[in-house]
């Protein structure tokens, strides 16, 4: 086997140039962000498209802007940069944990948020449930224009999107008071998680939950919200044991994905524990320091 | 047009395509075989090199993306055969092991010691999460890193 890859790599300097290249390339062309999934195509016995459009020279795609109202993340922001930027904000804790604990340090320094969201065949992405729990939206660019979709809608449509679009930005509204991310790798670190639970909540003055968003990842083929559990958490105080018990009763709704590292039943079986852990993380965050939901570190 | 890569301070040309993994060019074209192809999945860390001082997985890095960067391989860490303080400490702790995972471990720890002067045991272990040893273990490697952090402080950290 020749080591000389025949694949073409474009390195445009702007989003407009990138989407023009993607549109021209059609199905023979794909965006390349960190490359940590694409470069493993030979191991998965997949034939990569012949042309790639690198995003690494487009500085706008690495921008991070955090305001009181929202967080805006360029699609090529790495997990490491994201974890560093959102560290210390109680409402964004779910994102800090998801970005800061996934894979290993060298992967986190390379793999991007856009890559994590666009890799349809990767079920154990940490950022998906984390961003779902925060009601994130994504901006798509194509040569004919732009559009903003909720992350949930994007996940439904992403496999069917026509060639030529580029995910450029992720927008996270800062509506949660507290959040937490609970993941179970088989080793302490460095593995893909077998199951993930991300929780974001808002509390009223009397410390009752007024908004709850729960998302699960790695369990099914695509991460999703767990709305029946969210409904149970509403109007109640943050109670890890009660939340875990409620999750236990709702497990029949979930069918676990079979995989080499864990069978489907196991992924489902550990969910109540992860719900408890995530809620305990939120309870701890509430009891340490400021007990009121706050938006700054 | 050939790729122009700066490796261990020297500009070298490669005729490989830009999507070729950097690792393959280093090993097959430049005969720099210190970085190892082991898992090729980014889990094991045996292929690590420094890009502008930061560890990257050369198996997952398209060579076309690192034109204009300074690549330092394990061979480039000790020019003229002079070991860095970290390499000295690893040798004196008898932590050299079999050589498969080890170059990657040295690359990771070189960066970790440059970044933080006083590494804790937990920080050393966290830094090494992506460097897998499958035969011997980590204890002497961690001990050597802690010794160099403690003994040389900022000075050793700067020299790597």
UniProtKB/TrEMBL annotation, chain A:
SUPFAM superfamilies (UniProt xref): CO dehydrogenase flavoprotein C-terminal domain-like, FAD-binding/transporter-associated domain-like
The FAD-binding PCMH-type domain, residue ranges: 2-177
InterPro entries reported for this sequence: CO_DH_flav_C (IPR005107), CO_DH_flav_C_dom_sf (IPR036683), Diverse_Substr_Oxidored (IPR051312), FAD-bd_PCMH (IPR016166), FAD-bd_PCMH-like_sf (IPR036318), FAD-bd_PCMH_sub1 (IPR016167), FAD-bd_PCMH_sub2 (IPR016169), Mopterin_DH_FAD-bd (IPR002346)
Sorted UniProt keywords: FAD, Flavoprotein, Oxidoreductase
PROSITE patterns per record: FAD_PCMH
Pfam families recorded: CO_deh_flav_C, FAD_binding_5
Organism domain of life: Bacteria
A GO MF term: FAD binding
Protein name: FAD binding domain-containing protein
From TrEMBL, chain B:
Gene Ontology MF terms in the entry: 2 iron, 2 sulfur cluster binding; metal ion binding; oxidoreductase activity
Domain of life: Bacteria
Keyword DNA repair included in the entry's annotation: no
InterPro entries: 2Fe-2S-bd, 2Fe-2S-bd_dom_sf, 2Fe-2S_ferredoxin-like_sf, 2Fe-2S_ferredoxin-type, 2Fe2S_fd_BS, Beta-grasp_dom_sf, Diverse_Oxidoreductases
Gene3D superfamilies: 3.10.20.30, [2Fe-2S]-binding domain
Keywords from the UniProt entry: 2Fe-2S, Iron, Iron-sulfur, Metal-binding, Oxidoreductase
PANTHER family in alphabetical order: OXIDOREDUCTASE WITH IRON-SULFUR SUBUNIT
Domain 2Fe-2S ferredoxin-type, first and last residues per copy: 1-77
Name this polypeptide is given: (2Fe-2S)-binding protein
UniProt-listed PROSITE patterns: 2FE2S_FER_1, 2FE2S_FER_2
SUPFAM superfamilies for the chain: 2Fe-2S ferredoxin-like, CO dehydrogenase ISP C-domain like
Source organism of this protein record: Lichenifustis flavocetrariae
